[in-house]
Design a protein that fits this description.
Oligomer: single chain
Distance between the termini: 67 Å
Low-confidence stretches: none
Number of strands: 0
Structural class: mainly alpha
Length: about 190
């Protein structure tokens, strides 16, 4: 009976530690985003993040190696939302819808991207795409031509998204999708 109670206590502590780590990470991410609303990313320090988050230095380093790791996690979460949109359509069956969803997902998260771009966060992180995942999605087959075509699309789309975003997203996602089809000479 005593062993069962000890196991239950250990499990309760484990869950409590998990929740505590989750809360610490959320506080750290929120603090970084808050600081980025008024400071450039390169001027923000780990000390300023932990002071804003109200966590210990040990709590920070238990969860992250650096402020860049925090930023990467934030951007990975944004990519996850984009991926949900992109997974709805097969690129080659309906490229227009795929592009519309891509630009729509960026538009829906424009506040977050504005914050990242405004704080001059590294471009390679802001529009970070999981290239391996996208390559699989955009390659028709395993041939070298398809691999390079998919890679060109990923790189070009990343740059085009950034320019579209920085210029105020004047074109609708549908207009951007039409342009992408023309740029890459794809018939929808």
């Amino acid at each position: 009976m005593k062993e069962v109670l000890n196991d239950q206590k250990r499990e309760a502590l484990r869950k409590l530690n998990q929740e505590s780590n989750h809360m610490t990470k959320e506080c750290i991410k929120t603090a970084l985003l808050s600081l980025m609303s008024s400071e450039r990313f390169d001027t923000i320090t780990v000390t300023s993040i932990i002071n804003r988050a109200g966590v210990s230095r040990g709590g920070f380093y238990r969860n992250y190696k650096s402020k860049e790791n925090v930023l990467q996690e934030i951007c990975d979460e944004l990519f996850h939302y984009i991926w949900e949109f992109l997974s709805k359509h097969d690129f080659y069956e309906n490229p227009k819808e795929w592009y519309v969803d891509l630009f729509q997902s960026i538009a829906e998260h424009s506040d977050a991207y504005q914050l990242l771009v405004g704080a001059r966060a590294p471009k390679t992180v802001v529009l970070h795409f999981d290239e391996e995942r996208l390559l699989k999605k955009l390659q028709k087959n395993e041939g070298i031509f398809d691999k390079y075509r998919a890679l060109a699309i990923i790189k070009a789309v990343s740059e085009i998204l950034l320019v579209w975003f920085k210029s105020g997203m004047k074109e609708t996602p549908e207009e951007m999708a039409e342009m992408m089809l023309k740029i890459f000479n794809i018939n929808s």
